[in-house]
Write a structure and sequence with these properties.
heterodimer, A: about 290 residues, mainly alpha, 9 helices, globular, B: about 220 residues, 10 helices, transmembrane (chain B), heme transmembrane transporter activity (chain B), cytochrome c-type biogenesis (chain B)
Chain lengths: ~290, ~220
């Protein structure tokens, strides 16, 4: 259904702006001289598809190397105990998986929301696809953070689960990821699905600080939590090194996994375009 | 602009009052859910007094959820929602009128029935008072945030279940502060003050942003 009124408004509002943005002959000369590609070149699924394909092996191998190296460093080159008076013994080593996954789960949601915003503002298809490709990886990291946290909690707190603020926040984050994916999956029309799910991601982003704060301080007069406050500054150098190495490794893994998923999404959605047909017709002959 | 607001408000109220069962379903659901808990938990007064605030608030969330599905659905089915989108009035304003009508029909009855519910749970007079006030502040937030979800899931298969999946996590702050205010005020009457301020702040934020977001979601849904 067309919104006639809106379209008229859009034309009225946008026409003068668009004409001024067109390069005039005098100003475009300087632009043409540079043969370098503009960033928007990669905003097209057709050009990004091969680029993502070339990047996946690099990120994938970097992820494997970094994770193996950091796990080795974390397991064999770090002190046996963590903390001073009430020290945590060997079991603290789950920190090398637990903390990076928790960080990734939060970072990925923010990146998802950024891509959703870019998609809503510039109406670029690839941004929506990117957001859509990030969601499962983010949910995976959230789940991993909860799962490893349960094991760590069992050994150090004596319980798998507690309604501690950070545990609860992570659980809510997991629900938000699931909600995004569920809404996207429930709508058949890709265009509507992209935009509706992106709007939901944005609403979630605005609500996140409020939700986190409400869980953190159910009683505004006094805030308490089982989790200690973040103490990266005082931590042992070797432990910090292993943790940051794991984080970098997880970043590389995220890039690789998201790009792989993205390639699948691009092929599914662009299935009826010429470039996909050409690509698929070429491939059996070994030309890529 | 005020005319259009009143017009939509009066229309929605009139339509709802001609189909009264739909209005009372949410209210009855609320009463039944709240009455089931003592049957399941047992009728120990101390336990009921402790659980009461949380139970009443969770039931209020579920009741608000139940009614949300119908917020835009009827207008969507008969095409009048498209006409609303075509009017020169700002859509967020019209959506706001619909949300207010929805709250008058589903949220306000909860506030009015709250003293009876409080009696079932043996809440003290000050706790009952706080319960009514927090419901008065909190239930509009439920309608406002819920409207975004209702617009996003408009016309989808299994929209109702999906709606609860999307919106219930966003209801958490209201639940936390609403229930907590009631439970602290059962011991000290004035202890609920900070919670009222927090709920009020969230209500203002929701009043400001939720109609805009719901309007954007409606445009996406009806494109």
């Amino acid at each position: 259904m067309l919104h006639l009124y809106d379209e008229c408004l859009l034309i009225l509002v946008k026409t003068p702006v668009m004409t001024t943005q067109l390069p005039t002959p005098s100003s475009s000369d300087a632009f043409v001289e540079r043969p370098q590609r503009r960033w928007s070149h990669w905003a097209s699924p057709a050009t990004f598809y091969p680029l993502a394909g070339r990047l996946i092996p690099w990120f994938g191998s970097a992820a494997v190397l970094l994770i193996i190296a950091s796990l080795y460093w974390g397991f064999f080159q770090t002190p046996d105990q963590l903390g001073g008076t009430n020290a945590q013994k060997e079991y603290y080593r789950i920190i090398f998986v637990h903390v990076p996954t928790a960080w990734m789960s939060m970072w990925l949601y923010i990146i998802l929301a950024i891509w959703a915003t870019i998609g809503l503002v510039f109406k670029t298809r690839l941004s929506f696809m990117m957001a859509n490709a990030i969601a499962p990886t983010g949910a995976l990291f959230t789940f991993a953070a909860l799962w490893t946290g349960a094991f760590w909690g069992r050994t150090s707190w004596g319980t798998y689960w507690d309604w501690d603020p950070r545990l609860t926040s992570e659980l809510i984050l997991f629900f938000l990821y699931i909600g995004y994916s569920a809404l996207h999956a429930a709508i058949d029309d890709y265009r509507r699905a992209d935009r509706a799910a992106s709007l939901l991601a944005l609403v979630g982003l605005i609500m996140l600080p409020i939700i986190f704060w409400s869980i953190n301080c159910p009683d505004p007069n006094q805030c308490a939590a089982l989790h200690q406050r973040s103490s990266l500054g005082q931590i042992d150098q070797d432990i910090l090194l292993a943790m940051l190495g794991m984080t970098l490794g997880f970043w590389c893994y995220s890039f690789a996994a998201v790009f792989m998923r993205l390639r699948g999404i691009i092929l599914t959605r662009e299935a009826d375009t010429h470039w996909v047909r050409d690509l698929l017709l070429k491939q059996p002959q070994g030309v890529e | 602009m005020l005319d259009s607001f009143i017009c939509i408000l009066a229309r929605d109220l009139r339509l709802a009052l001609r189909r009264r069962t739909e209005v009372f379903t949410a209210l009855l659901f609320f009463i039944i859910v709240v009455s089931l808990f003592p049957l399941g938990i047992g009728n120990d007064q101390a336990i009921l007094r402790q659980l009461g605030p949380g139970v009443v608030w969770v039931a209020a969330l579920l009741a608000a959820m139940l009614a949300l599905e119908r917020l835009f659905a009827a207008d969507y089915e008969d095409g009048s929602l498209e006409q609303l989108l075509l009017t020169p009035q700002p859509l967020a304003w019209l959506v706001f009128a619909k949300i207010i009508a929805h709250w008058l029909l589903t949220g306000l009855p909860l506030v009015i029935i709250a003293p009876l519910i409080a009696m079932q749970y043996h809440l003290s007079a000050s706790a009952t008072h706080t319960l009514m006030l927090t419901l008065l502040l909190g239930s509009p937030i439920l309608s406002l945030i819920g409207a975004i979800g209702a617009a996003l899931t408009l016309g989808l298969r299994g929209g109702g279940i999906l709606l609860s999946l999307l919106i219930l996590p966003l209801y958490i702050p209201v639940l936390v502060y609403g229930a907590k205010a009631v439970s602290v005020s059962s011991t000290v009457a004035s202890a609920g003050q900070p919670y009222f301020l927090l709920l009020g702040a969230e209500l203002l934020l929701a009043l400001l942003l939720a109609p805009l977001a719901a309007a954007a979601a409606l445009r996406i849904a009806l494109e």
